[in-house]
TrEMBL record:
It comes from Pararobbsia alpina. The lineage of its organism: Bacteria, Pseudomonadati, Pseudomonadota, Betaproteobacteria, Burkholderiales. NCBIfam families: PRK10524.1 (NF007815), propion_prpE (TIGR02316). Coiled coil: none annotated. GO terms for biological process: propionate catabolic process, 2-methylcitrate cycle. GO terms for molecular function: ATP binding; propionate-CoA ligase activity. This is Propionate--CoA ligase. Residues 65-446 form the AMP-dependent synthetase/ligase domain. PROSITE patterns: AMP_BINDING (PS00455).
């Protein structure tokens, strides 16, 4: 039997042969003339000259065989809605949406920004954009006006698709006021707005700009829209993600490479086959949602389950009852959800028949050993960790579950797995780029070229792409993941946290700079540092340390409390409650180096009850004492 190590080596030694064969999984309108163009590092182009379409591959291609099979099952435990679409029905709905977009003036190459709750129309809007060759950019519905405005500024959409409201834990969250505020803030040309009315919140319309989907789509019920055949390397979508600056990065993805990478991964990594039912409990605003709620399951002819709600409402058995009723075969979520479920009565899980379920996949944040143990024992099914990021679009490390006839090494707790085929992944010295010895900590890097499906550039900014990701090592051109890791002698890599100021709260990636900028907008704030602090439920939470313009304002406990509330509201309004710090603490001084750089790592260490580490460069050690006092670890004198 071939070992996985050999299989991986083959994908690296001859990428043209490997990916050229895998490319047969999708439909090419015009065949490609070259598998890989690696003549302009660090940019890589896949399947040159080939034309294809993501929507065609996700839907049209399956119609002859699977027209009557369900493509999408939508369940909302927030509104009680359940909607089902066969492939034939989703084909009709996507065409209606595509025709509506065209009628509103959207053209090939235009951006369509999607700011939606978890409703089927969000997915229809993505597929309809893909159909007409427009570039979608989904903005997570939990984000607020400031986040939305910066993304509108950057993407300059011709159309925004949105809805009246989302709902979380039974609380209606109106979207329209946030969208209106963002559109007032933005400097981009005013786009058209298409709105789905769920009947949850008032939906005032701006004459000439806003249209209701029900009205605008009415004339297009039976229209069939031809697919735009895009060259494999044209942009399919932009997905914004956080980095070290306050300015979000628009991760740009191609068409053909992404389709091939996903079609391969759903089979080889997840063991997903046509006809299977997959439930990915994530949000379409994140990369997991793009890849494994929307595109990969449909590319493979599976049924995808889209869910609006929490894992514990109405009770902790809700997901397991769905597994039984919908005969779910594959499930995918983030460790946070499992940590939430761990607090529930395990009997709730045993009350459902889980025999259809083959495996549970987890990603997005570190999977701690107690949680991994608990869920594996409770489910009695394989639990598979996989490590990746918005930029890569699909897993970099895991243990493949669908590679029949290949000898896969046994799992090791604490490590997501071994490098996935196509990725030349190594752990290397953070400065020189030299490979680390087994057991030695370093940065996880990828050698050129990145495999198909990974980001092609930062939207509108090739230079930033090269500078941000490919210029971090002195002696080597390699892509930095900005994650620390350590690789053992068997190739297993353990993730040890970010090298930059990005934090991961309940699987949501947030930039501490963005939160700092938002807090700084409050007139009382002179200076602020935001750090990630370990949390047993959410993985990490944000703590804000604030220096006030007038320190007397925080002298009284009541004043401090009121100010803390105001500051949290500022973040809520700007970025959304996902980014709200768990605590805001007031200090007179922040610890900095003599050159003025914030010592965030030292602050985070103190907040986690650890020693602050190397402080040779600190300007005023008294600042650390202030942090300790604010945390209640020391008295003021
Ligand atoms: P995002 O781009 O939002 O998917 O976040 C990607 C980041 O989440 C990675 O760079 C890691 O820091 C972290 N991450 C994702 N998956 C895992 C995992 N399986 N184990 C540990 N960290 C992970």
């Amino acid at each position: 039997m071939t070992t996985y190590c050999n299989f991986h080596a083959r994908s690296i030694a001859d990428p043209t042969e490997f990916w050229g064969t895998e490319a047969e999984r999708i439909h090419w309108h015009t065949p490609f003339t070259q598998v890989l163009d690696d003549s302009r590092p660090p940019f890589a182009r896949w399947f040159i000259g080939g034309t294809t379409n993501l929507c065609y591959n996700a839907i049209d291609r399956h119609l002859p065989e699977r027209g009557a099979q369900e493509a999408l099952i939508y369940i909302s435990t927030e509104t009680g809605a359940e909607r089902r679409f066969t492939y034939a029905q989703i084909f009709a709905e996507v065409n209606r949406m595509a025709a509506t977009m065209l009628a509103m003036g959207v053209q090939r190459g235009d951006r369509v920004l999607i700011y939606m709750p978890m409703i089927p129309e969000a997915m229809l809007a993505m597929l309809a954009s893909a159909r007409i060759g427009a570039i979608h950019s989904v903005v997570f519905g939990g984000f607020a006006a400031g986040n939305l405005a910066s993304r509108i500024d950057d993407a300059q959409p011709a159309l925004i698709v949105s809805a009246d409201a989302g709902s979380r834990a039974g609380r209606v969250i109106p979207y329209k006021p946030l969208l209106d505020e963002a559109l007032l803030e933005t400097r981009a040309p005013q786009p058209k707005v298409l709105l789905v009315d769920r009947g949850l919140a008032p939906l005032p319309l701006f004459e000439g700009r806003d249209a209701l989907y029900a009205d605008a789509s009415a004339p297009h019920g039976d229209t069939i829209v031809a697919c735009a055949w895009l060259e494999s390397n044209e942009a399919s979508y932009i997905l914004y993600t956080s980095g070290t600056t306050g300015r979000p990065k628009g991760v740009q993805r191609d068409v053909g490479g992404y389709a091939v990478a996903l079609a391969t991964s759903i089979d080889y990594l997840f063991g997903g086959k046509a006809g299977d039912v997959m439930f990915t409990a994530s949000d379409i605003g994140w990369v997991v949602g793009h890849s494994y709620i929307v595109y990969a399951p449909l590319l493979a002819g599976m049924t995808t389950v889209m869910y609006e709600g929490l894992p514990v409402r109405p009770d902790g058995g809700v997901w397991w009852r769905m597994v039984e009723r919908l005969k779910i075969n594959l499930m995918f979520t983030a460790p946070t959800a499992i940590r939430v479920l761990k607090k529930q009565d395990p009997a709730l899980m045993r009350m459902s028949d889980l025999s259809s379920l083959r495996a549970l996949f987890l990603a997005g944040e570190p999977l701690d050993e107690p949680t991994a143990h608990w869920i594996e024992r409770a489910l009695d099914k394989p639990v598979v960790d996989n490590y990746w990021q918005t930029e890569t679009g699909w897993p970099m490390l895991t243990l493949p579950r669908g590679l029949d006839g290949i000898d896969i090494p046994p799992a090791k707790l604490g490590a997501p797995g071994v490098p996935v085929y196509g990725y030349q992944l190594s752990v290397c010295n953070e400065r020189t780029g030299e490979r680390c010895a087994a057991g030695q900590k370093g940065v996880i890097a990828l050698d050129y070229p990145l495999p198909p499906g990974c980001m092609s550039t930062i939207w509108g900014d090739d230079e930033r792409y090269v500078k941000t990701y490919w210029s971090n090592f002195l002696g080597r051109v390699a892509y930095s993941t900005f994650d620390w890791g350590v690789q053992d002698g068997d190739g297993f890599v353990t993730i040890l946290g970010r090298t930059d100021d990005v934090i991961n709260v309940a699987g949501h990636r947030l930039g501490t700079r963005e939160i700092e900028e938002s807090l700084s907008r409050h007139p009382a704030v002179a200076e602020v540092a935001v750090v990630g602090v370990r949390d047993s439920l959410k993985g990490q939470v944000a703590f804000g340390f604030v220096v006030l313009r007038d320190p007397a304002r925080a002298e009284e406990a009541m004043d401090r409390l009121a100010l803390e509330g105001e500051l949290m509201q500022t973040v809520d309004r700007q970025l959304g409650s996902v980014a709200r710090p768990a605590r805001v603490l007031f200090v007179g001084l922040l610890p900095k180096t003599r050159s003025g750089k914030l010592l965030r790592r030292a602050i985070a260490a103190l907040a986690e009850g650890r020693e602050p580490g190397d402080l040779t460069t600190i300007e005023d050690p008294g600042a650390l004492h202030q942090i300790r006092v604010a945390l209640g670890l020391a008295s003021p004198t």
